[in-house]
Amino acid sequence: MAPNAGGVKTSSDAAEQDALPVPPSPVLARVAAIAKHASSILLTFIGLTAITFIIGRVMPADPVLAIVGDRASQDVYDAVRLQLGLDKPLIQQYLIYLSNIAQGDFGTSIMTTRPVLDDIIRFFPATLELATIATIFGVLLGIPMGVLAAVNQGRLIDHIIRIIGLFGYSVPIFWLGLVALLVFYAGLGWLPGPGRIEVYYDGIVETRSGIILLDSALQGEWEIFRNALAHLVLPAAMLATFALAYIARMTRSFMLDQLNQEYILTARVKGLSEGAVIWKHAFRNVLVQLITIIGLTYASLLEGSVLTETIFAWPGIGQYITTSLFNADMNAVIGGTVVVGFCFVGINVLSDILYRIVDPRAHD
Amino acid sequence: MNIKMTIKRAALATAFAAASALPMAGPAHAGTPKDMLIMAKNIDDLITLDPAEVFEFTGGEIIANVYDRVMMFEAEDLSKLVGGVAESYRISDDGKTIVFKVRAGQTFHSGNAVTAHDMAFSLRRVVKLKKTPSFILTQFGWNKDNVDGLIKPLDGMHVSVTMAADFSPGLLLNALSAGIGSVVDMKEVQKHEKDGDLGYGWLKNHSAGSGPYSLQTWKANEIIALKAHSGYRHGAPAMKRVVLRHVPESSAQRLMVEKGDADMARDLTPDQIKGLAGNSDITVGDYPKAALIYMATNNAHPILGKAKVREAIRYVVDYKGMANSFLAGQYKIHQAFWPSGLWGSLEETPFKLDLAKAKALLAEAGHSGGFKIVIDTLKKSPYPEIAQSVQQSLSKIGVESQIILSEGKTLWPKYRARKHQLIVAQWSPDYVDPHSNADAFAHNPDNRMEAKLTGKLAWRTSWSDPAINAMTEGAAKELDLVKREKLYMELQRKVQMEGPFTVMFQKSEQVASRQNVKNFISGANFDLVFYRTITK
Predict the structure, then answer these.
(1) A171 CB near a chain B CB, below 8 Å?
(2) Can you give the residue ranges of every domain in chain A?
(3) Rounded average pLDDT per 10-residue block, chain A, 364 residues
(4) A166 to chain B: nearest residue by CA?
(5) Could you tell me the pTM of the whole model?
(6) Does A323 reach chain B within 8 Å, measured CB to CB?
């Protein structure tokens, strides 16, 4: 459902571009680069909507039946089909859809009866909240673990970290989620159960950003803040396990690459401390690659983890897109997919910028 | 490194991480508040709350608690049709016109009084909006052009309803107990009307009724919250708020009810119900429902269209085996098209697994060598299991079958286009009158493809029998209740023996509640669920 990461330009591509000989006018070149970037983003979006739209239309699920139900008589069915414009040629339907999107109208969702854009504004912050916290944990734990493993290659600590990585990467999240609920919610009672917040608190905090932590903190509702934070721990831990595993694994392998380079040997011969060798020399070089990895991890979490959201009754974008898909609610599916695509592109742009900051070669 | 150790290590790591988060959990609530009911339920089928359109399980349940209907089956006696918004009625001598008297003293949630104008507006609205369930009313001969003349308020408290088609007034009364019989607050709805939509856009996610509860919030995929109507005619409900929390995963539902964070779990599997057996905090209620699981053969299929083959298929179902194993507790055997426990139901179960007989019937039809067919069914349990059981039995009489599992949205178009061979599907009545199912299972007055009577199961299976059509029409018209019941018995027997359907099972809903939750009442039909009687 989510766009393939193949559509995302990696930082190393960007590196090649930037390494080209400096063109005569830097201003002109910058404008050209931005234009090129913008047009590639635009093309990505048109491609994304086109593919999703076509898949939606050729799918055997019938969007009319999704509205009228299985028992509708033929005239009710025909009336809705006409109303949806499904009698028009596919290409015309698509162009109408595109022009609506251009005006900010993603259509109405069958399932929620509300404009798709409103739905996304409601569901996306829930996923954003979860994915951001999971990624932060993934980075804060994953990178040190990866470095530690690489530095101690072949020793016990390396094995342990690799096993944790393997576990986080391969254990079914569905199983892990249920076990976590069983242990920490039902068994020990340390943490609250499914949902974003206790129902008693529902509707007390005014929705501004849609991120409950932020909204409740801004409005000084600390009891709700604590409750929301407690609800977040388990689902975020599930996603963080995955993020951590991936980041630790990649950090380890990148670091091993660097640690075997000659400049590391030189640095050591120069008598630099081991900490300086690892963090100032080797890690500095790994950071560039890591930014791409972290960006991709974050983006993939932002598309919503359907299983985690299902187990923890988390009203996020992943559950929204999946339920919509099962209900042949194509406006919602396309709208959701475009948002996910937007995240990928946005994060890609962001990692490019970060990359320029981190990599001295990219400085003007 | 064995897996156990890996898991242990990870569990420890997670435990450690979670332990550091301990102080965040805040004060634990001991159960749910006394006057609030929290239900864990999968509500992703909900797509509208406009009573002129609702035809889904969750939607039907909500509007049953938000709106009072013209006629009702009340919680106090589910078997008896009584006046709801209408206090009484008088049927004209020709049986064509019913004059309803609106019950005095009823108020909508808005505070407006319920009048004859509201009732007439609501029924006309269903006909004019022409949403899916509108056929329940339009079958009486009403359309957008004539309905204003045929359904009209006589004064503030009386409404005259005249049928333009030949039907028993008893059938009309039953039909007015369905969701489309809900009376909406005309003034409130008209306030929100946009471009002549009769308030449809607004009522999809708001409420304007006179029932025991009003809709407070509906956040799709998250929550439905209802607020008690203090001016309800049966008195204010004990539960001041009822909250349905969307919990799609049934294991999570189970944990929540065990923990006391939910008062009720609505979608537990038989295994999970069994697992709750020893828990004294939980009681499990059984509620027989009107939903049926049946098999249908396509009569246009060169082999399945033969009467003997159809008959053979009825003997390859292991009714008992399934009912006692994976269906235990949730389905029981039922073999006629009108569900057990309702007026007019036929309780006979003439079929059982008999492979020798099935084989002999196939030989009589000239197919002793067997043949190949495709079985279509739904992806969700228990349909795949049922299809597999049938597949196994079929293989024993030489019929090779392939099972195709689909989502409903993919399966129904195929069925409605008559492209299936053998389908395992479900059906539940649209309103509590045997005609609801007779019209679907037995009535097909025009079998041509272009007739597109897609709402009727008989048409979908390309099956039309003039004698059975006439019987269906006759039963719907019959004024004498005793005779009418007898006609439905005969009709069911005939369809049972000759039709393309093998009705197999009837649903029983199992609801797990905290032991302090009492008097939850769930009637046979999907839209007969009562929250107002619940106490804690």
Answers:
(1) yes
(2) 5-190+233-362
(3) 40 46 67 82 84 79 80 84 86 87 84 86 89 92 91 89 86 87 88 85 78 85 88 90 90 88 83 81 84 88 83 89 83 86 83 78 58
(4) B6
(5) 0.82
(6) yes
Q: How far apart are CA B315 and CA B319, in angstroms?
A: 9
B41 backbone dihedrals φ, ψ, rounded to 5°? -155, 150
Between strands B372-378 and B400-406, the pairing is: parallel
**Tokens standing for residue B508:** 């029983």
Domain B288-509 is of which CATH architecture? Roll (3.10)
The contacts of residue B214 (CB under 8 Å, 6+ apart) are B66, B109, B207, B226, B227, B229
Q: Which of A341, A330, A329 is nearest to A303 (CA)?
A: A341
Can you give the residue ranges of every domain in chain B? 39-218+515-530, 288-509
CB contact under 8 A, A319 and B221: yes
Query: Which has the closest alpha carbon to B240: B96, B481, B38?
Result: B38
Q: Hey, which CATH number is domain A5-190+233-362, 1.25.40.10, 3.30.450.20, 1.10.3720.10, 3.40.50.150?
A: 1.10.3720.10
Q: From chain B, pick out residues whose CB is under 8 angstroms from the CB of A191.
A: 18, 21, 25
With an 8 Å Cβ cutoff, are A184 and B221 in contact?
no
Contact call for B252 and A198, based on CB within 8 A: no
A182 chain-B contacts, CB cut-off 8 A = 255
- Put simply, the answer to whether B249 touches A113 (Cβ < 8 Å) is no
Kindly report the nearest CA distance between residue B216 and chain A, in angstroms. Answer: 10
Measured between alpha carbons, how far is B50 from B212 in angstroms, rounded to an integer? 17
Whether residue A76 and residue B132 make contact (CB cut-off 8 A), yes or no, is yes
B39-218+515-530: CATH number? 3.90.76.10
Q: What is the DSSP string of B472-515?
A: HHHHHH---HHHHHHHHHHHHHHHHHHSSEEEEEEEEEEEEEET
Which of A119, A168, A181 lies at the smallest CB-CB distance from B252?
A: A181
- Picking from B25, B243, B249, the nearest residue to A230 by CB comes out as B25
pLDDT tens profile B103-162: 999 999 999 999 999 999 999 999 999 998 999 999 999 999 999 999 999 999 999 999
A24 forms beta bridges with none
How many C-beta neighbours within 10 Å does residue A25 have? 10
**B21 to A312: CB separation less than 8 angstroms, yes or no:** no
Strands of B317-368 (E only): list them.
331-333
Interfacial A residues in 219-248 facing B (CB < 8 Å): 223, 226-227, 229-230, 233-234, 237, 241
How near does any CA of chain A get to the CA of B257, in Å?
10
With vertex at residue A147, the alpha carbon angle to CA A142 and CA A152, rounded to the nearest 5 degrees, is 125
Asked if A344 has any chain B CB less than 8 Å from its own CB, the reply is no
Contact assignment for A190 to B259 by CB distance below 8 Å: no
Give the dihedral sign, CA A218/A222/A228/A230. Answer: positive
**ipTM, two decimals:** 0.76
> Any idea which of A15-19, B347-351, B418-422, B450-454 has the lowest mean pLDDT?
A15-19
Residue type for position B89 = Y
Between chain A and chain B, the number of residue pairs with CB atoms below 8 A apart is 190
Identity of the residue numbered B468? I
| A156's tokens | 């016990």
Neighbouring CB atoms inside 10 A of A187's CB total 12
Q: Residue holding tokens 């680069």?
A: A33
